[in-house]
Amino acid sequence: MNKPAMPNSFRTGPDEQGMFGIFGGRFVAETLMPLILDLEEQWNKAKNDPEFKAELQNLSTHYAGRPSKLYFAEGLTKHLGGAKVYFKREDLNHTGSHKINNCLGQILLAKRMGKKRIIAETGAGQHGVASATVAARFGYPCVVYMGATDVARQSPNVFRMKLLGAEVRPVTAGHGTLKDAMNEALRDWVTNVEDTYYLIGTAAGPHPYPELVRDFQSVIGSEARAQMLEQEGRLPDVIIAAVGGGSNAIGLFHPFLDDKDVRIIGIEAGGRGLDGVEHCASMNAGKPGVLHGNRTYLLQNADGQILDGHSISAGLDYPGVGPEHSWLRDSGRVQYEPILDDEALEAFQLTTRVEGIIPALESAHAIAHAMKIVPKMDKDQLVIVNLSGRGDKDVHTVAKMLGMEI
Ligand SMILES: *Cc1c(COP(=O)(O)O)cnc(C)c1O
């Protein structure tokens, strides 16, 4: 395939139409168009408003716990015997992952726009919990759409959302997973255009969501870049993050995109291998198509039907990927690699044993890739792995995989 021309900067997208090259855009129903345009306009105003920035900064510090630390993972570094490994500690945020960064930003946007009601979609429930959290904090009614299959297999998160005052609506369409929940949330939005704010959980969906979610998550990379300069006096050689929809990854990557000497690697869920359909590696094994309002790489069969995919890690279990990643893939700026369930499981256990940190299974995918490349690197080289979340939520899955009873 032809590579698109290399731009002078990888940090200027998307264009006016919300396109990153041939990816992105806003493929939505007519009725949603005015809302999408309004959201874009309000976002453009908000992001340059000192008052909005100050309120977000204040909440990020005192409610979410930012800045998150850049931690030298000495135990893992010794074990691997190569480059120095650092973890960006998003696991230490309130609610246990990077998702709060985006939810705080969007709830302030909803407030500014005078919305009265929050809707969100969730797969494993992590984004549902983060949305219910900020809705509780700001006193909004919140409806979370969740596939019926996911409701059944993620009962602790369903209970958390209920405790936080949210209503969880199970979606039985399709296979009852994240893709179906997202469709249902978009449908709700079309019917309740006036008073409802749709809080999307990853850097996907119609423009301007991929851009605004990226901007809220870019705090990860901005902090990490400054912290590395302060702690080591130079930029890292490699940065790595796991890619579900792609929000924690683009958040880490974006501030580094124009640092030519920094190698950037996104990790997709390789599941049980890329030969079959039991994976979620849309950029390594998918094809471009349109889903949830944007054009991007998707898992699809020969007829263009969207596949459900599989990953040991529920947060990576999304059949698409944010459009900016598709563009970064085709332009060659970012390399995307798959990691198998078993490899992630091994990284999960190793990190727990040598660091005393239980990583989310999503983050364990990124660590697993570090385990492959770090031993081959020089001891004076530097690697940052985004520790997108903590793994307490995953202990049941891991016990089951290891054939143990809790
Ligand atoms: C949701 C989640 C992910 C995947 O979502 P992205 O939008 O790709 O970041 C990764 N890690 C954790 C801990 C999550 O909760």
UniProtKB/TrEMBL annotation:
It is an enzyme of class 4 (lyase). Its EC number is 4.2.1.20. Keywords: Amino-acid biosynthesis, Aromatic amino acid biosynthesis, Lyase, Pyridoxal phosphate, Tryptophan biosynthesis. One of its GO terms (molecular function) is tryptophan synthase activity. GO terms for cellular component: cytoplasm. It catalyses: (1S,2R)-1-C-(indol-3-yl)glycerol 3-phosphate + L-serine = D-glyceraldehyde 3-phosphate + L-tryptophan + H2O. The modification N6-(pyridoxal phosphate)lysine is found at residue 99. Residues 65-389 form the Tryptophan synthase beta chain-like PALP domain. InterPro entries: Trp_synth_b_CS, Trp_synth_beta, Trp_synth_beta/beta-like, TrpB-like_PALP, TrpB-like_PALP_sf. Pathway: Amino-acid biosynthesis; L-tryptophan biosynthesis; L-tryptophan from chorismate: step 5/5. Its cofactor is pyridoxal 5'-phosphate. Tetramer of two alpha and two beta chains. Belongs to the TrpB family. The beta subunit is responsible for the synthesis of L-tryptophan from indole and L-serine. PANTHER family: TRYPTOPHAN SYNTHASE (PTHR48077:SF3), TRYPTOPHAN SYNTHASE-RELATED (PTHR48077). NCBIfam families: trpB (TIGR00263). This is Tryptophan synthase beta chain. It comes from Mesorhizobium atlanticum.
